[in-house]
Amino acid sequence: MNGSFTAEHQRFRVEVRDFVERELRPHAEHWERAGRLPRQAVSKCARRGWMSLGPWEQAVVAEELPRCDSLGLALSVFVQANLIAPLIEQLGTSDQKSAWLEPIRHGRALGALAVTEPDAGSDFAALRTTGRRTGRHIVLDGTKTYVTNATAADLLIVAVRTEGDGLAGLSLVLVPRTTRGVRVEGLATLGLSTSAMGRITLSGCRVPADHILGRAGAGFGYILRALDRERLLGAVAAVSWAAFALERTVTWAKHRRAFGRTLAKMPVVRHQIADAAIALEAARQLNYATLATWATGRDVAKEIAMIKVFSYQAAQQVIERCLQLHGGAGYMAGHWTSRFYRDARALTIAAGTPEVMKELIAVHLRL
Question: Within this chain, do residues 263 and 358 fall inside the same structural domain, yes or no?
Fold first, then answer.
């Protein structure tokens, strides 16, 4: 374990891992079968103070929480800790913080960030959900989709067009879920069944004008900074999750016998596991180096785009390798590697595809 982890961070890690193994993992199979976000589990995480941590403590939680064996739950907690709470803390007024930040930090409320639309994902300039000013209110109309936590959220932070066309026209608006004109539908997904993913339709949804989060028209910049945080800490989590899968596969390979010996003694298997360990260690060190720079406040947008490609793909490929090594058992729907494989498919789709990230890298390289 490298990075700038101190002895205090390691003590915190022991506490987090103990909580995950004692309070979360025993219930994961039930949660996954139910296919619903366990709100009580998210609240437990919040009450432990995980919604207001420093960078390296956030990294500890990112590495330990996926070991709960329900990546959808971990993702939902990360949305609270790495997107919703920081946005309100950094941009909110005192009234907004009183209304939403404290409840979120103490597990009494859940939030969701609604940006993507049916016809606009990474192309933020194409977002069409509108926020029309009428006196002291803003009237919202449009549809958001693929929103993590949507069906469980009490608060929606919605990207809307308030200031005209283009990237400069976007604003973030706080929308309580109970607001008239808000309709939320659950989405059936390939994996991440406990992430409460949904579609949000806003039809004449009227909220006070003072529900704009931050400055009107500055939403694009706010979203980019929030996504950088999500991508960075998500990479830390993805690599740790894949390492957890590899640990389980190694344990299995030491006991599974074929042709008179365990799989762990077969060079063809040993070398595949070694290759997986190499890929994860390279990704881990890239994550730590980027995190160390980000923690100082310096711009690491290029490096974060790099880890969104490299680290997420490395994790995804290791998960696929774990399934392959389990053979026919891994292909069964109820096997843990099959579920991990389905969950891992989102790693190179959500929060920016490799193709989009490579374009960002190319821009930074002045190509």
Answer: yes
